Amino acid sequence: MAEAKMIKLRDVAEAAGVSQGTASNVFNRPELVREEVRERVREVARTLGYAGPSPKGRLLRSGKVNAIGIAAAEPLSYFFADPWARRLLTEVAEVCDARGAGIALVSVAGGKHLAWSIESALVDGFLLRCGGRELLVEVTQRRGLPFVALSLDTSEPDVPAIDIDDFGATRMAARHLLALGHRRFAILGIGLGPGPGRVPPEEVRATRFVNVRERARGYWAALTEAGIAEDMVPIHAVQNDGGNVGAALDLILAAEERPTALLAMSDLVALEALKALEARGVRVPEEISVVGFDGVPEAAESIPPLTTVEQPYRRIAERSVSAILDDDLPAGREILPLTLVVRGTTAPPVSG
Amino acid sequence: MAEAKMIKLRDVAEAAGVSQGTASNVFNRPELVREEVRERVREVARTLGYAGPSPKGRLLRSGKVNAIGIAAAEPLSYFFADPWARRLLTEVAEVCDARGAGIALVSVAGGKHLAWSIESALVDGFLLRCGGRELLVEVTQRRGLPFVALSLDTSEPDVPAIDIDDFGATRMAARHLLALGHRRFAILGIGLGPGPGRVPPEEVRATRFVNVRERARGYWAALTEAGIAEDMVPIHAVQNDGGNVGAALDLILAAEERPTALLAMSDLVALEALKALEARGVRVPEEISVVGFDGVPEAAESIPPLTTVEQPYRRIAERSVSAILDDDLPAGREILPLTLVVRGTTAPPVSG
DNA sequence: GCGGAAAGTTGAATCGGTTCAAAATATGAT
DNA sequence: ATCATATTTTGAACCGATTCAACTTTCCGC
Asked: Which segments constitute the HTH lacI-type domain (chains A, B) (predicted)?
């Protein structure tokens, strides 16, 4: 039942009466081989059932696996469950596919097991989906393979990282609302504790998540340009997974001067807010405008479709795959811009 | 900047004054090496910055890549978009992870490109997500690596395939409803044309999708047991992605003897039906019960949560990964049972 | 018919390890 | 001490290809 015995290039060469080198050329640089010989070798290969040079041999010789590893400090299911991961991975997969490269998923959720996967995966380099844990970076450094850190939280200057311009993006989001005429805002912030409850600016500045800080700074920058002070804009803590959004909203809507626009630090939260708003009979965008952050696929499907700033998934994918495969690692932290996608949840505020 | 020069096992052995064989043992079978020597080699390795034996060398020698390829005749994004694929892949990923094996995703969507990926992926074998296209099987056979066909549609006896018991599952679903007291049914069928519209049994038997035929047979078998004839149960064609479910429902609800139970050939369709039913003000399960098929994660989240027959994702994953990695290919088509998951969309029919 | 260039082919080295029979060394019993 | 046995270590073969310098053959023009 087992494959009798894999025939190898040498067998073919022998059977065809040529040197192994020539046989190799038949498959890799056929133009170097005389047609007659080429055909003969091919014929023999066919007869013997030789499927072409095995990638294994090639790998060893060339050193290139032609595959990149994607690692996260989460269970593997994370890659298929999280919207951000799915979206990015789709692009990464496509980019790799176009280049004929493979992708290998590796999880490092289980403490000790961690080192193993990263240290033994057969890849040319890694994409690290960080999120604060520098442990991932450390382990990967030990392996000695090139890697790119994605959404790395610490700002160590010497680790190659590709990141997004959180500051510019949220500033853009706020400016969009400002341009529409909004003057009263509320922010739905993540990474600021479980919520619900208003979080003072100092506390926001003190969070250990850089991206949260930057997003807040971006909102404030735009608002300040328009003459709106930080304190005028309440930041409410909600959970990363959308928990407590309803509660936060109740607080926000109860204010005497109800805001006309909502800035959410993630699409997931914005989407949750949309649902909560509908449940409370508040019409979007007529009564209140909402802007998200991330540009997950679901954002285009909501009712109404969500206005948001979209991460440059494709570019992140292209840049990081190229970094690994073309040996073109970013020197430090490289920052990519997001784009504002205006959809149905933003409109001018009702006058009065 | 580039890694000075990768030090290899031989360098370490040399520097430590032992043979390469001993050095190899230090890393792979340390118990064979005297403690003193072992520590010395380890120390030298550390000093030199040797990260342990490179997987590349090991691969060539052992022949095992320790990774399995997952291929579909769809763009790579399919793996992250389709609920079934995501669910199964999550399990596959987990099973592989537990065994320290990697997974590589390969798409064969682009016609000619097809051969390349499958033929050059660095894996020990493939999981083929078929769906009628035997082309995938053919190409993979040419590569000569072990493979398992998942949801293969043709029933060629000699290709190793792992499948689910469609017949038993739908029979179970129908029996559940029957046991609750239902007597009037309608079936939402896929793979029977675009719909909407009732499809006669002969036509259902003639569809080229075996699984659709089997699912219908399962429903009929249970119904017949209970003395309900095939013709008494309308099968309505809807689209695979849930298209036309609303239209089909309108037809079904318009019947003079409105059915009290709905059998859907996929969760996606059932979920869509739930939405359409709600939009039409028909209460589930009070006025009508609904049973799905597949057990996708979303089925647990719907309101009310969907009663369905769940595919044995974990077992499919385990069985197929083991088939590849343990060289334990199914001889032909191997069939796994599904389980009925009773949730909130089924209840006894209102009497009268 | 000859020299030189072009085209085609060969053979050996190499990639980075693992494996295993055989050799060397240590241990224990007598 | 001595021999048998157990523990370590060695060295060379091997895994399946690619690469390239060197060698052979073919082709051309004169």
From this structure: 7-62
